[in-house]
Amino acid sequence: MKKGLHKVLVALVVMSLLALTGCGGSQTQQSGNNSSASGEEKVLKVGSAIEYAPFEFMDEKNNPVGFDIDLMNAIGEDLGYKVVFESAVFDTLVGAVALGNYDCVISAMTITEERAQSVLFSDPYFESAQIIAVKKGTDIKSEQDLVGKNVAVQQGTTGQFAVEDLGIDPKKFETIADAINDMMIGGSEAVVADTPIFYYYIAQNPNVNLEVVPSNFEKEYFGIAFKKDNTELAEKVNASLKKLKENGKYNEIYKKWFNEDAPEF
Q1: What CATH architecture applies to the domain 43-125+223-258?
Q2: Can the peptide bond before residue 214 be classed as cis, meaning omega within 30 degrees of 0?
Q3: pTM for this one?
Q4: Which fold has domain 128-220?
Q5: Which of 78-82, 148-152, 187-191, 213-217 comes out lowest in average pLDDT?
Q6: Percent of the chain clearing pLDDT 90 (strictly above)
Q7: How far apart, in whole angstroms, are the C-alpha atoms of residue 111 and residue 123?
Q8: pLDDT at 30 > cutoff 80
Q9: Which pLDDT tens digit goes with each residue over 1-28?
Q10: Average pLDDT over residues 218-226
Q11: Average pLDDT in the 100-108 region?
C-alpha cells in the first residue's frame, strides 16, 4: 500500500469513530431534559394506554385526546416541554417507565403500594372508584352479587384486583372496550372498571343496553408515574399540578370532560 493512501485511510477511520461516538452520546440525555445547547425544543416522552375514554383515546383523526392528555399537555406547556405521547398496553407501562423508556406515564393509573415499589408517583391528580356495569335487567345489584358470575376486566387494572379480592377469577382483556363488548355479546355478565369510564360510555351511547350498579369499592387516586430516581422531573410536575389547580386550569379541563367542577381531595 502506498504511504500517502495509508494516511488517508487512517484519517477516514478516525473520522468515522468520532462520528459514531457523537451518535452514541445522544442516547445518554437525562430523562425529561431532552434539550440541546443549540436551543432545541425540550421533549417530554409520555407513555399511555390510549384506549380508555374519557381519560385517553384517539379521535377521528387518530390524535390522542382526553382528560389525561389535556392535563399532561397543560403541564408540559407550563414547564416548557413539547409532550409526545406513545401508546402501549396498560399492564406494560409500569415496567416501561421503570426502565426509563418514557419520561413519565399518565394513564388513569391508580397509585398502589405494589406499583410504588417500581415507580415514583406524582401527587394524586384524580379521585375515582371502581363500579360495576351490567346489562339492564340483571339480578346483579352489588359487588357481592358478582360472586359466581363471569366478570370482565381490563388486564392489569385495579378493576381486576378488586374483582380478584372478591375471590373471583375474572376474564381479562387488553382494553376496557373489549371487556364491555364481551359482556354485550353475552360472554360475561358484568364489567368492573373506573366510575367515569362507564358514565362517559353511557353518555356517548345513550341507547346502549347498559346500566351501572352502585358498589362499595374503596376510593382510588390516580398519579403520574416516573422512574424511581427521576425525582427532579416529579417535583417539577407536582409544582405544575399545584399551580394548575390554583389558577383554575385544572378545573377547566375537568369540567370539559366531566361536565362538573372538580371535587376537592
Answers
A1: 3-Layer(aba) Sandwich (3.40)
A2: no
A3: 0.82
A4: D-Maltodextrin-Binding Protein; domain 2 (3.40.190)
A5: 213-217
A6: 82
A7: 9
A8: no
A9: 433 433 333 333 333 333 333 333 333 2
A10: 97
A11: 98
For residue 193, give the 3-state DSSP assignment: strand
Instruction: Quickly count: other Cβ atoms within 10 Å of residue 79's Cβ.
Output: 17
Type of residue numbered 225: A
How far is 163 from 70, CA to CA, in rounded Å?
A: 30
Does residue 238 come out as left (phi exceeding 0), alpha (psi in the -120 to 50 range) or beta? alpha
Separation between Cα atoms, residue 81 and residue 89, nearest integer Å: 25
Give the H or E element holding residue 85: strand 82-87
DSSP conformation class of 52:
B
Model confidence at 29, in pLDDT bands (50, 70, 90)? very low
Alpha helices in the chain (DSSP H): 3-25, 67-79, 93-98, 113-116, 158-165, 176-184, 195-204, 231-246, 249-258
Instruction: Please list, in sequence order, all residues whose beta carbon lies within 8 angstroms of the beta carbon of residue 221, skipping any fewer than 6 positions away.
Output: 110, 111, 124, 126, 127, 128, 265
CB-count burial class (<10 Å; 0-12, 13-18, 19+) for 48: buried
One-letter amino acid at 227 equals K
Cell numbers for 41 = 425544543
* For residue 226, pLDDT beyond 60: yes
Domain extents for the chain?
A: 43-125+223-258, 128-220
One fold for 43-125+223-258 and 128-220: yes
Confidence at residue 28, expressed as pLDDT on a 0 to 100 scale = 28
